Amino acid sequence: MITTLHDIWNRGGAVLNGWCSIGNPFSAEIMAAQGFDAITIDGQHGALDYSDALPMFQSMRASGKPILARAPWREPGVIMKYLDAGAMGIICPMINTAEEAAEFVSFMRYPPLGQRSSGPTRAAFAHPGYNPGEANDTIVALAMIETAQGVENLEEIAATPGLDGLYVGPSDLTLGVSNGALPPGMDRQEPEMIEVIQRIARVARDNNLHAALHCGSPEYAARAIGWGFDMVTVQSDVNFIANGARAMVRTFRDLSATEGESGQAADY
């Protein structure tokens, strides 16, 4: 029996979300076995496409965790393909207006609630007893707020019927709100950025929506829960590999007093 995000939220819990940017079913299977409450396949900035995502969905099914996907864009064909592959939620980037939010939601729901086409090729097998009504009730639509325009239209976006939550992308949000004056990145410490992030969580709650934030550390994610977020993503599979390998190499160099090659991985 696969848990849904609504199951966790209805129990009053917060969702710790894992993030897969590497298009590989084995690495996805490893991520799904690490205790995250949910896993998202990143179809926007991840090094993967639909042909990579499908076997990743399959490899993670045994975990019983809800698997989501971030769509590359607000495009119905790709969103519906991810849903037909078995995604239990879609994170849609760059939602800037209430009209865009309503259009996104319409791609997620079967008639009469939306315009999703019926053809759950894998979803019908991955979710026994699958039916359109249950899919409409359980699949989660999360709109990313990550631009100055999105913040300007925040209340109108949050009032969109059928929307389940707001997902904060802090890197693009910082670029947009600061008009490029601040560098992109997670775990913002600037008071003006914290104010915007907290406002998004507050507006979500006021509209009975869920609020999600992508974080760079578990410490910051815990702070976000205190701000009212009930879903947090911490780093990604890319970060975990790079950071773990870098830490091992540094420890070895320190203990063996050898220099070797300097690491090229970025600090995430």
Description:
With 268 residues, this protein is of the alpha/beta class. The protein has two domains: 5-235, Phosphoenolpyruvate-binding domains (TIM Barrel); 238-268, no CATH class. It contains 13 helices and eight strands. The protein has helices at residues 5-10, 25-32, 50-60, 76-84, 98-108, 123-126, 132-138, 148-152, 154-158, 170-177, 191-206, 218-227, 237-256; strands at residues 15-20, 38-42, 67-70, 89-92, 140-145, 165-168, 210-215, 231-234. An eight-stranded parallel barrel has the order 1-2-3-4-5-6-7-8, surrounded by six helices. Helix 2 (25-32) packs parallel to helix 3 (50-60). The longest helix is centred in the last third of the chain and has 20 residues, at 237-256. It is globular and about 65 Å long. The two termini are 35 Å apart. 41% of the residues are buried. The mean pLDDT is 96.
**Which fold does the CATH topology of the largest domain refer to?**
TIM Barrel
Beta-strand percent range:
5-15%
Q: Briefly, what CATH class of the largest domain?
A: Alpha Beta
Q: What is the distance, rounded to the nearest whole angstrom, between the alpha carbons of the first and last residues?
A: 35 Å
Classification by helices and strands: alpha/beta
Globally, the shape reads: globular
Mean pLDDT over the residues? 96
Strand order of the largest sheet: 1-2-3-4-5-6-7-8
Number of helices: 13
Number of beta strands: 8
